[in-house]
Design a protein that fits this description.
Number of strands of chain A: 9
Order of helices and strands of chain A: HEHHEHEHHEEEHEHEEH
GO molecular function (chains A, B): DNA binding; DNA-binding transcription factor activity
Oligomer: homodimer
Largest sheet of chain A: 7 strands, mixed
Number of helices of chain A: 9
GO biological process, one term (chains A, B): response to redox state
CATH architecture of the largest domain in chain A: 3-Layer(aba) Sandwich
Shape of chain A: globular
Helix content of chain A: 40-55%
Largest interface: A-B, 62 and 61 residues
Radius of gyration of chain A: 20 Å
Strand content of chain A: 15-25%
Protein name (chains A, B): Redox-sensing transcriptional repressor Rex
Function (chains A, B): Modulates transcription in response to changes in cellular NADH/NAD(+) redox state.
Subunit structure (chains A, B): Homodimer.
DNA sequence: GCCTGTGAAATGGTTCACAGCC
DNA sequence: GGCTGTGAACCATTTCACAGGC
């Protein structure tokens, strides 16, 4: 594996996800080859930025030609480690948790949901999208049995830390937190926060700025 | 208004949203005053970072004391422009669109959903969460009538650009795009992209890194 | 004494410009 | 000729360190 073990900027990783998205769309449109310039325009970034980003992981392009779309998608996916199946579990079976469990795209993208957990006795035992809801306290026990690599927290904010603790105890090293609360984890556990109010705030701020400067 | 008309980093705005989240949680716990050091620890950032961020908008703290939680929340909300009601509309009434329409938190946070649009004739006329679904082509007409400031796109990716065009035509200056596709807008329109697969990819990458370095 | 606000220093990321290669 | 890959130059953001004020 082409692993240049230098530090890779977080921003680069975020852009890589965007590149995949755009490249898959180009692929659907039947495009075979793409230059960094054209890809850059679609992603609203600088062409050198793309070349630098990709260079962290290897040499994927052909000089004088560009990048082969299909190959580049595979290369990026391999570089990010998303060319395989990841076993995930959802903790917190409310509206959002159910929506995620029913979302087919997860499986299509290699993220298989293999566990559904909640601490509400009324929900335990219920079948959601083919999975039995299990008591959160039994997370470690279940994880040992089925293997859970990524945890998705969809509890109310006040229960997010407890859900986190169960996941960490179970040996999970990656967490996506949809709950609007900060959580504490050991250094070897990665957390990503998803909260679209943050995005709404950002848009509101920018619109306000533009209105004022008129 | 304390408007230091210098450029404010995008990263600062993102952190401001986090500060609000944490401060509101502190407020619920009955905390009156907080130091930049303590707030920093909770948000996993550097204390000077917080002081610098806040300084873009004004002097909200008291030397030797810290920040008054209640006041700081109000000040930040005012600074971001989220201390008022924003009229929003959802374009694309699928699973996600419906979920957002039924989400009470929007109204609580000042984002009132005043329009629901879709281009599917079978959906037009349907009542979702008290709103009649209207043909996307009539967006401008409706916007002139009710006023729409922020658009939320929840269409499939191939229809995202058309939804965008309708919104831009209607004079909307801020867009949240949940569709997994890039969209083109004029310079005076702000777009925020929400795609949790990007976050899943980021987590997968970090977990992969940690596994490899063991 | 303590904690904020802020210029100055350090860090890290982005863009430029061109060498290298098809 | 054209487009990638990359060191060097540039720019922005973060962190430090301390002055300012309760």
């Amino acid at each position: 594996m082409t692993l240049k073990s230098q530090h890779i900027p977080r921003a680069t990783i975020q852009r890589m996800a965007v590149y995949i998205q755009v490249l898959e769309s180009l692929q659907r449109d039947g495009k075979d080859v793409i230059s960094s310039e054209l890809l850059a325009k679609t992603c609203s970034v600088n062409p050198s930025q793309i070349r630098k980003d990709l260079a962290y992981f290897g040499e994927f392009g052909v000089r004088g030609v560009g990048y082969y779309v299909q190959d580049l998608i595979s290369s990026i996916k391999q570089a990010l480690g998303v060319d395989r199946v990841w076993k995930t579990a959802v903790v917190g079976i409310g509206n959002l948790g159910r929506a995620l469990l029913n979302h087919r795209e997860f499986k299509l993208r290699g993220f298989h949901i293999v566990g559904a957990f909640d601490c509400d006795p009324f929900k335990i035992g219920e079948i959601v999208s083919g999975l039995e809801v299990i008591c959160s306290r039994r997370l470690k026990e279940k994880a040992d049995e089925i293997g859970i690599e990524i945890g998705i927290i969809t509890t109310p904010p006040e229960r997010a830390q407890r859900a986190t603790n169960y996941l960490v105890d179970a040996g999970v090293k990656g967490i996506i937190n949809f709950a609007p609360a900060r959580i504490n984890v050991p250094d070897d556990v990665t957390v990503e926060y998803v909260d679209f109010f943050h995005h709404l705030y950002a848009v509101a701020f920018n619109v306000t700025l533009n209105i004022e400067s008129e």
